[in-house]
Specification:
The complex is a heterodimer of chains A (176) and B (204). Chain A is built from two helices and six strands, in the order ααββββββ. A four-stranded antiparallel sheet of chain A has the order 1-2-5-6, with helices on one face. Chain A is of the alpha+beta class. Chain A is elongated, with a radius of gyration of 23 Å. Chain B has one domain (46-203). In chain B, the strands form three sheets. In chain B, strands 1-4-5-6 form a four-stranded antiparallel sheet, covered by helices on one side. Chain B has a three-stranded antiparallel sheet with strand order 7-8-9, covered by helices on one side. The radius of gyration of chain B is 30 Å and the shape is elongated. The termini of chain B are far apart. Classes of the chains: A alpha+beta (176), B alpha+beta (204).
């Protein structure tokens, strides 16, 4: 009886010890994945800052036909992240997506889009005055925006589970 | 009751039972030991790789944060892909005094052998050096000095610390190398992009 109790205690202690080691290793991997993804998202935002502010929407929206340097030359709104595995349902192996306050097909015409102040998305902080005229209207501001709210979503297949990351920020025209 | 009868009635284990139990215990203990050793080796390998990657990210962040405050027009050399440099010189914004932006003496981040060194007051009497890491690989992971882009990142023969300038953005790549036992070497490569926050017109 005593031996059985001692063995049970020993097994519990060993189990707890191994569990702690496992949890620590798991947390290290989670931290590593977070760091890789956060780095990728920050690098993307830095690349966007490096572009002419007026071109940012056309470079990083989903429409390949309006790219400033010719159709299909811009990065677009979806990217891969080196170092993480895309989720199984990810389109073309993409792991991060950019969202602007863009209304697709506002007049029902296929393939059209408008950058709108009346776009409703609490995470983007819209509706919001984008061109600085103190009015929130329902016009297209793709050519005169002065601030550009944006969100980057990332999703990937982590080592232990499917994971997501999100960053909201705002690009601003600070010089002419 | 006789003594012999009392002894014969005691419960206990035969020598055969004890030997069998000890044998089983030895087998279980040996298997457990092998399993724990393998698990511990695998965990140690994983942990070393992760620790090296964390070190690389820390150095990368240090480099990135320093360059972020630099004046874009002070970056020397301002090389664009497929060229790169392992030494970047710049001036950083120190503040504003009497309405004028105060710029630092030239600073430099450079790879010297296996070290990443930050130099301030470059080429002056007050020059000082701080080593941020001494684990830098001679060349970036996957790259060999052959005049070609071996790792497919668009840059040729880049060193373990590599800077590539594109307008206001600087792409920083870093490979750290660490001995992994039995003559092996563990490599970790990290990369980031940072935009210089201060521009020439801010000086005027």
């Amino acid at each position: 009886m005593e031996v059985a109790v001692a063995l049970a205690i020993l097994a519990t202690v060993v189990g707890l010890f191994l569990g702690t080691i496992g949890a620590t290793a798991r947390q290290r991997w989670v931290n590593r994945e977070n760091a890789v993804v956060a780095e990728a998202v920050c690098s993307l935002v830095e690349r966007m800052r490096n572009e002419d502010f007026a071109d940012v929407v056309r470079l990083y929206n989903a429409d390949p036909f309006d790219d400033p340097r010719g159709p299909g030359t811009a990065p677009g709104n979806a990217m891969r992240i080196a170092g993480v595995i895309p989720t199984e349902d990810a389109e073309a192996g993409m792991s991060m997506w950019i969202t602007f306050p863009i209304t697709e097909e506002p007049d029902g015409i296929e393939g059209t889009w408008e950058l709108r102040e009346d776009f409703v998305d609490a995470r983007l902080g819209t509706p919001r005055d984008l061109n600085g005229d103190s009015v929130i209207d329902d016009l297209d501001h793709a050519s005169d925006y002065a601030i550009l709210p944006m969100r980057v979503d990332a999703a990937w297949q982590g080592r232990f589970s499917q994971r997501t990351f999100q960053m909201q920020t705002m690009l601003v025209r600070y010089r002419d | 009751m006789s003594v012999a009868r009392r002894i014969g009635s005691r419960a206990g284990f035969t020598i055969l039972e004890l030997l069998l139990a000890l044998g089983l215990l030895a087998i279980v203990a040996q298997k457990t030991f092998v399993m724990l050793t393998a698990a511990s080796k695998a965990t140690a390998t994983d942990t070393s790789a992760l620790v090296l990657e964390e070190k690389a990210r820390r150095v990368l962040q240090q480099v990135a944060m320093t360059i972020m405050s630099a004046d874009r027009d002070s970056l020397v050399p301002g090389v664009e892909a497929p060229l790169d440099t392992d030494a970047l010189r710049f001036k950083v914004h120190l503040g504003v005094e009497n309405g004028e932006v105060v710029w630092s003496e030239p600073e430099e981040i450079v790879q010297k052998g296996q070290k990443v060194v930050w130099r301030s007051y470059v080429a002056t009497e007050k020059e000082r050096h701080i080593t941020w890491t001494n684990l830098v690989a001679p060349f970036l992971e996957g790259e060999i000095p052959n005049g070609m882009d071996d790792n497919g990142n668009g840059v040729i023969d880049e060193k373990g610390l590599s800077f590539e300038v594109d307008r206001s953005a600087v792409t920083i790549r870093l490979t750290l190398a660490q001995a992994a036992g039995e003559g092996d070497e563990r490599l970790q490569t990290v990369e980031t992009v940072v935009t210089c926050r201060n521009l020439q017109e801010a000086k005027e």
